[in-house]
Amino acid sequence: MYGVIGDPIEHSLSPTLQNAAFEALTMDSVFLAFQVKTGEVENALCGMRGLGICGLNVTMPHKNAVIPFLDKVDAPAKFLDSVNTIINNNGKLSGFSTDGIGALNALKKNGVNLKGKKVLLLGGGGAAKAIAYALAKEVDELTILNRSPEKIKALTETIARDFNKKVSNGLLEPSAIQENLQNADVLINATSVGMHPDDKHSLVESQLLRRDLTVMDIVYNPVKTKLAKDAEKAGAKVVSGVEMLIHQGAASFEIWTGRAAPIEVMRKAALNKLAGAKN
Ligand SMILES: NC(=O)c1ccc[n+]([C@@H]2O[C@H](COP(=O)([O-])OP(=O)(O)OC[C@H]3O[C@@H](n4cnc5c(N)ncnc54)[C@H](OP(=O)(O)O)[C@@H]3O)[C@@H](O)[C@H]2O)c1
User: Which are the catalytic amino acids?
Assistant: First the structure.
């Protein structure tokens, strides 16, 4: 048995993704969603040990709260202070963060080579931090803009120091987007702007988008955000948030099972579920 813990949990796509993968590989496994209230996290992890639940995904608001109850935490999760995947090895619980690798693989598997590239990342929340950490190893230059720039100052300094890369940060405002986009090869929206029901909005003026740009919007509801539509019209290469969702789920699946995740099956299941979701 596998599952996801969070609160609220009913909109999680993890059961759809993981059960489709188990079924495709004819594995005798099931993935369930558990609503776990704040204050019940320790009990939930004791339950994981006691019941022999093999793996858990962790979503809001518990990504940080689970850490004290784990036996081991991997380097990205430690850096981010955030765990979204737990594996149970005979009662020893190890925590991982797969958001960053999910974003990295979404780009790479869609043909985007990040070596030597300049990336403009919008956002400074949990997802943006995970992406910044994962991309820092690969890219040449990273600029992070956030509405609250004080939230990304420490992140920027640590990445510049640890990875010896050119990393800058600033206030997310139209002039800064325009200026930084001129030299960027890849633009990533890791804010929640554009997410349902705010789906008429984009932080980036459509006339700034170009053919030689790769644009990834990590928002996956709607599947095609305003930014993605504008980028497509401009002839840019577009990588959708669904790709990151699938690849972070695939990374969790591989941690738990040691088997290659059936990406195509997971993509189909996620898109079907999102198409059927009532907005
Ligand atoms: N595709 C995937 O697999 C995947 C994975 C994780 C998350 N996501 C999506 O990514 C988005 C962010 O998730 P998160 O976990 O990072 O959330 P979070 O920690 O709450 O961060 C939200 C981010 O959006 C910014 N923001 C919100 N409203 C804004 C506005 N009106 N103008 C400018 N910036 C604004 C926030 O800026 P401040 O810091 O100034 O508040 C912050 O940077 C969500 O839509 C989530 O569904 C997708």
Answer: 63
